[in-house]
Amino acid sequence: MQGTKNLTEGPIKKQLFNLALPIMGTSFIQMAYSITDMAWVGRLGSEAVAAIGAVGILTWMTTSISYLNKVGAEVSVAQSIGAREEEGARAFASHNLTIALIISICWGLLLFVLANPVIGFFKLDTDISAHAVSYLRIVATGFPLIFLSAACTGIYNAAGLSKIPFYVSGSGLIMNMVLDPLFIFGFGMGTDGAACATWLSEATVLAIFIYYLKKRNRLFGGFPFLIRLKSRYSKRIFQLGLPVALLNSLFAVINLMMARTASTYGGHIGLMTMTAGGQIEAIAWNTSQGFSTALSTFVAQNYAARKKERVLGAYHTTLRMTALFGIFCTLLFVFFGSEVFSLIIPEKAAYEAGGVFLRIDGYSMLFMMLEITMQGLFYGTGRTIPPAIISITFNSLRIPMAIGLTALGLGVAGVWWAISISSMLKGVVAFVWFRILQKKIL
């Protein structure tokens, strides 16, 4: 099939690494946008970090919604490629882009209009809230850029060309790293400068994607970006992507509630710790998500081609790789949490509080990797509902668990323990669930 890679033949381990490494890099780069903003804004103080951290949870929710078309493209297009249906691959690619644009415009407009009451939910000081509202309104106008870039990434991942999103996203990150200090300090724009720098970088990423798809690499012989939607393709995309988008969006909503609890018990330092600490943890999550996405793409093509022995081989290889990465993250967070946090925010009270968060969260890293691996396996076989149920159930438990643990006298650390314990439970249940269904699926 024109412009794509066939993953149904050849060495499994090599193909997984060739897929996973660029995806890992792309995921890291996407998260590095927020880390870069926080690192520069951190030089303005913990209050400024709290302001963009509050918005960071909303942009996390935005990214979560965009998974509808990222995962929708990764699975629907990859399965069409595996079944040698080029027309289907073209149609799914076009539908994912069109749906992404419609949803992003509606979501961006909603947050732009409701910026004040949304930020008011965190009950921050007036000055911090004002900076957060301004920051949110700027980034909300760029949500279509995020959604369309996510859909393009999904299409290229499905085609086995994961290096292209890596290079494109990398260009955007380099631009963001250059523009952040220029806008924040050079132009004296503060937190608004960070938002403008990110907006321009995201626009550049989408422009490069469009150039690649239209000029450099015409996948499937070329396809239109915007089309009249057909129920056959739209329904399949929502079947595949909606559970993933919902579970990740609910995850963001739960973290919204957890952030408010952290703010209640720890003030702006508590909110800053959770949002900045969450971004650091997300480096581990999103980097390891590269293995999961590679596994999903590999499994989707081989599952459609009925090569189940290759599916199992890829699963076992991925499990070993994510386990090693999980052990590394545990050691790093448990023993060097404060040092890691201080790289983002040099304020002593901030990095000491952040060190406590990372130490507690570090105990769950291996289990988090297990959950991510099982997620990719489920997605590749077209079963996106089990991971959604697991995530929704145990992420929802975080709220009553956090309230209970803080009431027992743990204070804001009770919120961190609720996050860590629920992550452990998700990993165990995901593994057991797949083992029960393995004979039926494979």
From TrEMBL:
Q: Which UniProt keywords apply?
A: Cell membrane, Membrane, Transmembrane, Transmembrane helix, Transport
Has the keyword Manganese been applied to this entry?
A: no
Question: InterPro entries given for it?
Answer: MATE_fam, MdtK-like, Membrane_Transporter-Flippase
Give the main localization category.
membrane
**Where found?**
Cell membrane
**Keyword Transcription regulation recorded:** no
Query: Topology with regard to the membrane?
Result: Multi-pass membrane protein
- Membrane-spanning ranges: 16-36, 48-68, 89-115, 135-159, 166-187, 193-213, 237-262, 282-300, 321-345, 365-382, 389-410, 416-437
Q: What is this protein called?
A: MATE family efflux transporter
**What is the phylogenetic placement of the source species in the record?**
Bacteria, Pseudomonadati, Bacteroidota, Bacteroidia, Bacteroidales
